[in-house]
Amino acid sequence: MGRKWNNIKERKASKDANTSRIYAKFGVEIYVAAKKGEPDPESNRALKVVLERAKTYNVPKAIIDRALEKAKGSGNETYFELRYEGFGPNGSMIIVDALTNNVNRTASDVRSAYNKNGGSMGVNGSVAYMFDSTAVFGLTGKSADEVMELLIEADADVRDVFEEDDAVIVYAAPDQFHAVQEAFKRAGVTEFTTAEIVMLPQTNVTLPEEGQAQFDKLIDALEDLEDVQQVYHNVEFED
């Protein structure tokens, strides 16, 4: 399973640091999660996951509150959760997750981004089988051994615990997200550098220099699309 999670997170955060794009996308995601159930994270687990992730991306409280108020009030927009699978340069694999109120527009935009940047759309299932849905937590201030010990004591089921740069990264099954979070909470850990459910590649690939430049352009084009929430891939970037 691919590692170097901090490198992925830092690249995404750096790319979005000077724009409001990531906040707008979180606004939609929070609204959709809140509309699925009660607009209360204590009774709506999907919403709780989104809010925890928003916290690690420093989404302003005003954005979160606005989305929740919209869900509580007269907001009646219908959004569809879509997944597109495809290929980039040198056989690299890409998963695109989107939330949209216009399926035709989103499909056209994603296909165009692939076609114009050296990629190609695949059929459903052509890529996803090479990825695992995974709950990811990142934290600082503790060693991997300390984290493993507190998770064992809490009887939390995790896939992997390892140190990366100055952080400890924990991988767990998606249905263990809340159990792991509660285990950390009971141990006094409430701040995370990462807390989300993602698609992690089972194996990573590296690209030649020319392929890497083209791949970066493709990923940027996909991430820039208004309806795209997440882009996952199996390319390992150089440190």
Q: Quick one: overall form?
A: globular
Unreliably modeled segments: none
Structural class: alpha+beta
CATH topology of the domain at 130-201: Alpha-Beta Plaits
Going by CATH, the homologous superfamily of the domain at 130-201 would be YebC, transcriptional regulation domain
Order of helices and strands: HHHHEEHEEHEEHEHE
Number of strands: 8
CATH architecture of the domain at 130-201: 2-Layer Sandwich
Report on the structure:
The structure is a single chain. The protein has 239 residues and is an alpha+beta fold. Helix content is 42%, strand content 22%. The chain has a 4-stranded antiparallel β-sheet with strand order 3-1-2-8. The protein has a 4-stranded antiparallel β-sheet with strand order 5-6-4-7, sandwiched between helices. A hairpin with a 5-residue loop joins β1 (80-87) and β2 (93-100). It is globular. The protein starts with a helix and ends in a 6-residue tail after the last strand. The model has no long low-confidence stretch (mean pLDDT 88).
Keywords, please?
four-stranded antiparallel sheet; alpha+beta; 42% helix; globular; 8 strands
Structure described in brief:
Belongs to the TACO1 family. YeeN subfamily. The protein has 239 residues and is an alpha+beta fold.
Note the topology.
Layout: H1 5-16, H2 21-36, H3 45-56, H4 61-72, E1 80-87, E2 93-100, H5 103-116, E3 120-121, E4 131-139, H6 144-153, E5 160-164, E6 167-172, H7 177-186, E7 194-201, H8 209-223, E8 228-233
Antiparallel strand pairs: 1-2, 1-3, 2-8, 4-6, 4-7, 5-6
Helix pairs in contact: 2-3, 2-4
